[in-house]
Every structure is written in structure tokens, then in C-alpha cells.
Amino acid sequence: MPSFDWKGRGRGGQSQEGVLVADSRAAAIATLRRQQVRVTSLRQKGRQIPFLPRLPRRIGIKSVAVFTRQFSVMLDAGLPLVQCLEILGDQQENRKFAEIIQQIRSDVESGQTLADSMGKHPTAFDNLYTSMVAAGEAGGILDIILQRLSTYLEKLHKLHSQIRSAMIYPVTVLTIAVVVVWIILWKVIPVFTQLFAGLGGELPWLTRTVVKASNLVGTFWWLVPILFIGISSAVRAYYRTHRGRRVIDGLLLRLPVVGMLIRKIAVSRFCRTLGTLVSSGVPILDGLEITARTSGNAIIEDAVMAVRKSVEEGKTLSAPLAETKVFPPMVVQMVNVGEQTGALDQMLSKIADFYEDEVDTAVEGLLKLMEPIMIVILGGIIGVIVTAMYLPLYTILGKIS
């Protein structure tokens, strides 16, 4: 196997370097990541492979869902595991994903389990995926587990698509509004300013305010993108902290209309994820921990981890769910019924189906609500600017008459 000279930084930020023997570049990177080393350079036989200090790009949910569905069909048809991976890797259009699949095939051929091989590639297969695959391998029902995983991923992709669809309209309208206002302040208002200067007299307060804004845009236009980038970077940096993530996620949950939509999405994801894990044979404690990490909201994550701690102490699942005050009473009651009847996974799936329908309705209502709001905002901004420009003309015409 080839040798790699590597340099990187450890968990505490200290510089490290050394020599590593691995069968491929991807395997060397995976080994160093498991040792909590952030690679900055990797050399093989005189070749230097630079690494940018950024997070690796994840494989899309849709690609993983299609791969999982095809994988389950092939296994159900009786094809050997290695042959399935070879076929899927050859037909994969995403080059990066194809390399990952071929690396998994190589690891499985060398004797590693499928779950361990997939665990080396977190950009494609997260903890939930590898945990369910491990449960499927242990129980000899890998094809059934992959079918459940593909269904879960397809529903998750649908949910993400709904969220993106809901954001397209307001983002587009706000972008157009900003561009229009910017052009008016930058090019149109200076023409009126020269006209007002020639007429003389004192301008109304609203007109003076708009003229000052126009002068600010014309003189310090370069400051606007700097402020935007600076504020965005500061918010992202604050969100990466433990406290910042909880403050921002808590504020999002308390928003009037959007907060309710976020809560429904979180509940739907919680029920779908936990139900899929439980039905696949993953222990409830492991399932709660994985569900907490994939919740997408720090407040929901803390609530689920509190529930896990209570379950670990011997309590039922429904009682600590009610104590968190995060999950709706209907969810708590249905979970309680599922525990009493021994059909918790089926009950969680029914709750997820219900809340996914609720998300569909909420997204449609949000879009209908946003249309008039965006029109009023855009019309109000343009109306204020037009009024400010015509007020001096009305004053002059009144004096003349």
C-alpha cells in the first residue's frame, strides 16, 4: 500500500504531521479524521494535494435516496452485496458519490461490515443511516431495512423541497425590492435633487430623508456589501456556539407563523426518524440520541436528549415528552397509546404522516399569506420614495397658484 506524508491540526488546534500507510487517498483522510485531525496537506509519491479549510460538501438526499432504493431492489432480487455496490458505483453520475461507493465496495471485499464501511463517509451516510444498516446486517434483514431507509429519505427529500419552495417567493420578491430601491436611490433620486436645488426653498422632512439616503448610497455604496457580509459572518459565528444556536433556534420557534411551521417540521422529522429506527430494531436509547442529532433545531435536540435521560432512568417515553412542553399534546397521547399497545413504531409513523400533511397545508397557507405582505412592503417602499419626490413639487405649485 502507498505511504502518505500528511500535515494537519489536532482537536486543540496544534500542528501535527506524520506518515500514514493506506490503500488510497480517501482511506488516509478517513483514518486521520477518525483520529480527529483536520488535514491541511497530503503528499503521495511527490504529489501535493491541497485541502481548503472548509467542511466537505455533502451528497444530496435525493442521490442517497435513489441509491438506497436501487440497492434494496438488487438485494431483494438475490444479487450479492459486492456486485450490487459495483453496479451502483459504475452507474452513479455523481463522480464523488461514485468514488465513495467504490471505496465501500473495496472495504466490504476486504472483510469489513457494510455499516462500518459506510461510516467512513459521513458526507453521504449519517449516523442514522449507518445505525439502521448495522441493525439490518445483525438481523439478516438488510433489504427490508434499506427499503425503509429509502422511504424515509424520499419523504425527507419531499419535506426539504417543500421548505425550499416556500422560501423561493419571499426571497425573490425581497431581492427584487432591494435592487429596485437601490437603483432608484442611486440613479433616479440625484436627478430630482438637482431639480430641487435649482428651484430653491426648504424641502419637506420626508424628501430630505430620502435625499440623504440617496447620497449615502451614492457615496458609500461599497459599505453595504461589507456590512452585509460582516453581519452574516457574525450571525453564523454566533450560531456555531452552544448558546447562540439555542438563542436563534428559540427565536425561530417563537415567530408568529414561521415558528409554528418549524415546530411541525421538527415534530414530523422526530416521529419519522424515531419510528424508522425503532421499526428497524435500533435500541430506543440509541434511536433517541440519533433523532436528537438529526432534529435540525437545538431546542428540539435538548428536549429529546432530556427524554432520553428519563427513559434511561426507567421512565416511559410519553411522560418525559409531555414534560418538555415542546411536543403537542396529541403527539404525547398517541405515543402513550403506542407504548401501551406495543406498536410504537406504527404510531410514530402515523403521527409523522399526519404532521407531513399539516406541513403541506401550512406551507400553502404561508405562501398565500406572503403574497399580499410582500406586495404591501414593496408598494409601501416605492410609495414612500415617490411621495417624497413629489411633495416639493406640490408645495411649489401651491405657492405659484
Strand content: 5-15%
Walk across the major sheet and give the strand order.
Answer: 2-1-3-4
Average residue pLDDT: 82
CATH homologous superfamily of the largest domain? Type II secretion system (T2SS), domain F
Description:
The protein is α+β, with helices and mostly antiparallel strands. It folds into 3 domains: about 5-50; about 60-125, Type II secretion system (T2SS), domain F (Receptor-associated Protein); about 145-400, Receptor-associated Protein (Up-down Bundle), CATH 1.20.81.30. It has helices at about 25-35, 60-75, 80-90, 95-110, 115-120, 125-140, 140-200, 205-220, 225-240, 240-255, 260-280, 285-295, 300-310, 320-325, 330-340, 345-400, and strands at about 5-10, 15-20, 40-45, 45-50. It is globular, with a radius of gyration of 28 Å.
